[in-house]
Amino acid sequence: FVPAREAQKAGLYPYFHALETGQDTEVLIGGKKTIMIGSNNYLGLTSDPRVVGAAIEALEKYGSGCSGSRYLNGTLVLHHELENELGRFLGKEACLTFSTGFISNLGIISAICGRNDYVVCDKENHASIYDAIRLSYATMVRYEHDDMQDLEEVLKNIPEDKGKLIVTDGVFSMGGDICNLPEIVRLAKKYNARVMVDDAHAIGVLGANGRGTAEHFGLEKEVDIIMGTFSKSLASLGGYMAASENVVHYVKHVSRPFIFSASIPPANAASALKSLRILQEEPERVQNLMRIANYMRDGFKRLNIPIGASETPIIPVFTYENERTFIITRLLLERGVFINPVVAPAVPAGQCILRTSYTATHTEEQMNRALDAFHEVFSSVPAHDAQTIV
After folding, report:
1. CA 259: distance to chain centroid?
2. Looking at 99, 136, 173, 233, which residue is catalytic?
């Protein structure tokens, strides 16, 4: 890939940094202690001894893997336990787990949608949703990001006799903004559509109890399918859907990505289950997470560092140009702060960002050090005079 080669030659390549420690608020990179504000470890549970202990216990009891798919020999009592507890937590009749979050979207949408159906998709939805729609052979119709007037125009133009599924991220992974779920639900009822919410970045983040976008808006009974992942707040690997028992029963018997994928390994299932239980026992983690995010939001504003209109622990910092983004990323890492650069074509040209994200266990001392590094770097790098190299 030519642009990546050019960035490497220029000494600005910002990806694939190897961590020498586990995910935490601080990590070691190249032997240097670094504040991690580029992780999706929202509740700070990946290094929690209780979660690690649950994984070890499951590894010793069940072994390292399941040697097959859930459909055949790969279902453990542990999988049922996780699904039952997660379904109850989300207020749905049933729950089904998948090997990854990406496969969850592939497995759900490709199963319930077909050639005669329409999937209505926010333009800033996750890539896995786009791939899932292609796999389903349904007709994809996109609406402008968070534009409810455009969504209604799209729905108006779909034939009344066609199946319609509105799919949206709950929290958008780059901008950190929250979908307008109340209006989406209203329009779905008006035009006889179903609603699916990808809550990968919302579980453990939104709602008084961390149940996600639907709880945040008080619409838990109005969303037909909730999808999510274990790789973020729930400190593991895998994904899930929560819905009515009929829908879950159907998906588990026709979804090719589900049927033909190996099941979640025991250690991952156990760590996700333990994380879910800790979330329910310690809902204050959700409040701590938002407090830290708001602290950083206020800090960036105080320093006149441009940020997006985020309401969540994902705060995009605008850097605008590709090369300027890479330079700032490198300078921050040299000062002991890890962030994720997002450049064109992942974002429109001239709208590059640093995707910063926060953890419930970050301390104000760590955040102050990070803000000092941002202030120093942004004060030293010119705003718009760099030539792009990609």
Report:
1. 24
2. 173
> How far is 272 from 45, CA to CA, in rounded Å?
10
Give, rounded to a whole angstrom, the gap between the first and last alpha carbons of the chain. 11
Strand partners, 356: 315
To the query of whether residue 32 is one of the catalytic residues in this protein, the response is no
Q: How many CB atoms lie within 10 A of CB 106?
A: 26
Query: What pLDDT sits at residue 8?
Result: 85
Torsion, Cα 143 228 315 168, to 10 degrees, reads 10
User: Is-contact 211 90, C-beta < 8 A?
Assistant: yes
Stretches in the chain below the pLDDT threshold 50:
385-390
The amino acid present at 219, given as its one-letter code, is L
Query: Which residue among the candidates 164, 216, 232, 274 is catalytic per the annotation?
Result: 232
Distance between CA atoms of residues 373 and 37, nearest Å: 12
Beta carbons of 240 and 90 less than 8 angstroms apart: no
Residue 226 to residue 175: CA distance in whole angstroms: 20
Look up residue 347 and give its two tokens.
């974002």
Give me the helices (H) in the chain, please: 2-9, 49-62, 77-90, 101-112, 127-136, 148-156, 181-190, 213-217, 245-254, 256-259, 266-281, 284-302, 322-334, 364-380
Angle at the Cα of 122 (from 116 to 124), degrees rounded to 5? 135
Helix (H, G, I), strand (E, B) or coil at 15: coil
**Residue 145 is encoded by which pair of tokens?**
């990001």
- 47: annotated active-site residue: no
User: What is the SS3 string spanning 197-217?
Assistant: EECCCCCCCCCCCCCCHHHHH
Instruction: Provide the pLDDT for residue 1.
Output: 59
342 near 353, Cβ under 8 Å? yes
Does the pTM surpass 0.90? The reply is yes
Distance CA 52, CA 141 (A): 43
* CA–CA gap between residue 320 and residue 357 (Å, rounded): 19
Q: Which of 92, 126, 164, 201 does the annotation list as catalytic?
A: 201
> Can you say how many angstroms the Cα of residue 126 is from the centroid of all Cα atoms in its chain?
8
Whether residue 321 contacts residue 381, with contact meaning beta carbons closer than 8 Å, is answered with no
Active site residue 123: no
**Closest to 121 measured CA to CA, from 90, 101, 147, 100:** 147
Question: What pLDDT was estimated at residue 390?
Answer: 30
